[in-house]
């Protein structure tokens, strides 16, 4: 399995004031034989990442494609939002590239190394519709009746998990806002104490007040740092897997599309056989046409058999992808929770040391 190390760096605002956007530099290092170089870099914008996600979902039925972060019309140039999106895009493309199936997709290769990517995408768009078009085709087909109990259980499980993750995201957002408010309050308190220390209160008290103001300014910085870390560690993981559930559902939908292809192939086979039998029974089947008619039946049987194999293969792949999803979810939550708690404990220890030092000074 080839290894990819990919970073998304240097977000830059480009374009005119009306149609401006953020451009990222995507650095890739890999030992994959698909690429002529081992290291290379390209410039990509958010819509390019979105195109890759939609295209890979369409190219690979049954595969759970790691999702890009959601669109955000307002505040998309805010510094904190850009930092969070950059990290999310980096994690997304890293997971895509190191996936055993997606890492071999030609469209990923184009995304990572093509210098004419925009032109490549334009040509591809002219050749076929996007993922929504394919989903629309699924919706117009006859109703699908699930025969595998495993998929029914997974759908119910995913509904519950999605609600839990969304609740967790909201809770962490609330905690982060409270920390930001606490940071602002500490800053206001520090400013007030600092101004008081400059008044006529005596030298010893003035020094103590100045020391307390310094401690509170540091507490302000630590709380602000913790608030941002809440967002980019634990909350980012919860948000990512909340969006990944949509990708799992897309994998389920792609399985249903292969089922309809199979059933359509069987329907075509039945129609061709019936036509053959009618012509033969009515005496319209001349000897020269008999061979051609039998060849049509053989081809229809081959297509139906291939479609059945494809459905079974996608069903098996989807189950293995859900197992991968569960394993990675546990590992990622464990890692992000460890980083989150370790950082919070470290900053709390720093606050304690600051106050102990201040008390010794006083």
TrEMBL record:
<keyword id="KW-0333">Golgi apparatus</keyword>
<protein>
    <submittedName>
        <fullName>Vps5-domain-containing protein</fullName>
    </submittedName>
</protein>
<keyword id="KW-0963">Cytoplasm</keyword>
<dbReference type="InterPro" id="IPR001683">
    <property type="entry name" value="PX_dom"/>
</dbReference>
<dbReference type="GO" id="GO:0035091">
    <property type="term" value="F:phosphatidylinositol binding"/>
</dbReference>
<dbReference type="InterPro" id="IPR036871">
    <property type="entry name" value="PX_dom_sf"/>
</dbReference>
<dbReference type="InterPro" id="IPR027267">
    <property type="entry name" value="AH/BAR_dom_sf"/>
</dbReference>
<dbReference type="GO" id="GO:0015031">
    <property type="term" value="P:protein transport"/>
</dbReference>
<dbReference type="GO" id="GO:0005768">
    <property type="term" value="C:endosome"/>
</dbReference>
<keyword id="KW-0597">Phosphoprotein</keyword>
<dbReference type="Pfam" id="PF09325">
    <property type="entry name" value="Vps5"/>
</dbReference>
<dbReference type="GO" id="GO:0042147">
    <property type="term" value="P:retrograde transport, endosome to Golgi"/>
</dbReference>
<dbReference type="GO" id="GO:0045053">
    <property type="term" value="P:protein retention in Golgi apparatus"/>
</dbReference>
<dbReference type="GO" id="GO:0030904">
    <property type="term" value="C:retromer complex"/>
</dbReference>
<keyword id="KW-0653">Protein transport</keyword>
<dbReference type="Pfam" id="PF00787">
    <property type="entry name" value="PX"/>
</dbReference>
<feature type="domain" description="PX">
    <location>
        <begin position="2"/>
        <end position="119"/>
    </location>
</feature>
<keyword id="KW-0472">Membrane</keyword>
<keyword id="KW-0813">Transport</keyword>
<comment type="similarity">
    <text>Belongs to the sorting nexin family.</text>
</comment>
<dbReference type="InterPro" id="IPR015404">
    <property type="entry name" value="Vps5_C"/>
</dbReference>
<dbReference type="GO" id="GO:0005794">
    <property type="term" value="C:Golgi apparatus"/>
</dbReference>
<dbReference type="GO" id="GO:0005829">
    <property type="term" value="C:cytosol"/>
</dbReference>
């Amino acid at each position: 399995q080839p290894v990819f190390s990919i970073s998304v760096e240097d977000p830059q605002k480009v374009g005119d004031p009306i149609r401006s956007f953020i451009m990222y530099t995507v650095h890739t290092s890999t030992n994959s034989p698909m690429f002529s170089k081992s290291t290379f870099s390209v410039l990509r914008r958010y819509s390019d990442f979105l195109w890759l996600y939609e295209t890979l979902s369409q190219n690979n039925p049954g595969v759970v494609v790691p999702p890009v972060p959601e669109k955000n019309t307002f505040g998309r140039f805010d510094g904190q939002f850009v930092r969070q999106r950059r990290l999310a895009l980096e994690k997304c493309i890293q997971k895509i590239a190191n996936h055993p199936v997606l890492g071999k997709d030609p469209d990923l290769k184009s995304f990572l190394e093509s210098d004419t990517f925009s032109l490549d995408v334009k040509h591809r768009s002219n050749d076929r519709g996007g993922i929504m078009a394919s989903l629309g085709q699924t919706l117009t087909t006859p109703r699908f009746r699930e025969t595998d109990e495993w998929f029914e259980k997974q759908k119910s499980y995913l509904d519950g998990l999605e609600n839990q993750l969304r609740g967790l995201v909201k809770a962490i957002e609330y905690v982060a806002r409270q920390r930001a408010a606490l940071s602002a309050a500490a800053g206001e308190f520090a400013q007030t104490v600092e101004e008081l220390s400059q008044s006529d209160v005596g030298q010893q008290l003035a020094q103590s007040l100045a020391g307390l103001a310094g401690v509170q300014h540091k507490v302000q910085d630590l709380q602000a740092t913790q608030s941002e870390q809440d967002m980019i560690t634990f909350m980012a993981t919860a948000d990512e897997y909340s969006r990944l559930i949509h990708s799992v559902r897309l994998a389920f939908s792609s399985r249903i599309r292969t089922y309809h292809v199979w059933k359509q192939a069987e329907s075509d086979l039945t129609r061709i056989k019936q036509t053959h039998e009618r012509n033969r029974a009515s005496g319209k089947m001349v000897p020269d046409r008999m061979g051609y008619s039998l060849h049509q039946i053989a081809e229809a049987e081959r297509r139906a058999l291939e479609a059945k194999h494809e459905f079974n293969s996608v069903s098996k792949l989807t189950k293995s992808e859900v197992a991968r999803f569960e394993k990675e979810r546990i590992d990622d939550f464990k890692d992000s929770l460890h980083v989150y708690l370790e950082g919070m404990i470290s900053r709390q220890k720093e606050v304690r040391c600051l106050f102990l030092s201040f008390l010794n000074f006083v």
